Amino acid sequence: MLVGLSDPRGPKVWGFVPYGLPLFAFLFAVFGPISGLPATMIGLSAFGLFNVIGLFDLRQRTPRSAALELGPGYIDVKKAGSRNQRIHAKDIVGGTTARTKAGLLLTLMHRNREHPIALELPDEAAAGKVRHALGIGHGGFGVIAWRTLGEGSRRSAFVGRIIAALTAFITIAVTLAISASAGTAVGFMLGLFGFVGAILGFAGLVGPSAEPSIVMAADGLRLRTPRGWFALPFDAIHRVDEHPAGLAFTVPEPYRSVLVEQSSFTFGGPSADDRHVILSQIRAAALRARGMGPHKDDVTGRVDVLRRNGETPRDWLVRLDMAGQMLATGSGYRGNTLDLEDLWAILEDPEAEAELRAAAARVLRHCREPEARVRIDAAVAAVRDEPTHRRMRIAVRDDLDSASQELAYLDATQRTSAAMRVDAHGRVVPGH
Description:
The protein is α+β, with helices and mostly antiparallel strands. Among the domains are: 1-137, PH-domain like (Roll), CATH 2.30.29; 300-417, no CATH class. The chain is 43% helix and 20% strand. It contains 12 helices and 17 strands. The strands form 4 sheets. The protein has an 8-stranded antiparallel β-sheet with strand order 4-3-2-1-7-6-5-8. A 4-stranded antiparallel β-sheet has the order 9-10-11-12, with helices on one face. α4 packs antiparallel against α5, α7 crosses α9 (354-364) and α7 crosses α12 (400-419). It is elongated, with a radius of gyration of 29 Å. The two termini are 48 Å apart.
């Protein structure tokens, strides 16, 4: 499956990788076997190169074609050069989709990334496979956050790196063109400027990340505006357009217009493709809020017969096994016919209730399709909520006695957790 991949920046630690070579060269000049003028030239070159690298924003500007390989609870991004990676379902904290002229845009928020990952997929079928592998439901989930402004120290760091790099390279040029003594004199004169510039540049490198400017959640947007944070429900978004100063939202009275400022790409702002992703997702969310998006086929009512309804864990699992055996032979169950497709739909729906998903998994264990067990395992692996994941793993265990005991223990543990909570002082108090 070929996709367009936009992953602006990985974990912040990767931002330090390009600085490895100049740092190594500088250490070699200081502690290596060379000395005198050669060591000084290498050290100054490394110092200048270190600051020159900092002038370039190494984020990916444009999408890159990639191949996706899907597995149970993960996707592998391949043929994307430095963007090759494995994305685990449990690391995704938010996901949403938008339809574009090129296909379907899936935006993911990774817990270890500063910026969202955008996958542009060719059609709904391809997007459905990726959503299934990562446990993302029809309506998306969680929170997506975009940064449209760079860090506060970004501009001063940019200027500081220019000064520090110029100091190093001017000193090298004077030394090579005139003499070592002339270079030494220039180095002393410019040294203070270079030192201050290096401090500013380093502060920008290790400083805290900028706050998100646009936060998308299930109930709407939170926008960071020049006047402070602004909460905006999706159905209140009349329009959103690019503006020379940022993104302009047209909203109801009395506000009428809300502006989210943005920096240039050089100073940490979004690229043109990043802005395309942001606008596409916001416009799609606004349309869905008005009921204009595709509707989900909810099969919950057709599998309600599988609810536990107060039964003991063992009685419930035995009843589910009976339902599975009858389904495998084509027999009806208590006057109702459980449809195989409905069971698969509820099992593979991340938005469905944990109890029904676990029940469907137990019933489908008896399915005679050769790939049934693999499909069940894939659905379980994509569950990111630990209690739900554990309940489903218990439900598909072959040992009835062991599964019954574990399910009873899980019930007791969850009842205890619901009945007690820890207050701000670390004391255990009754829950609500």
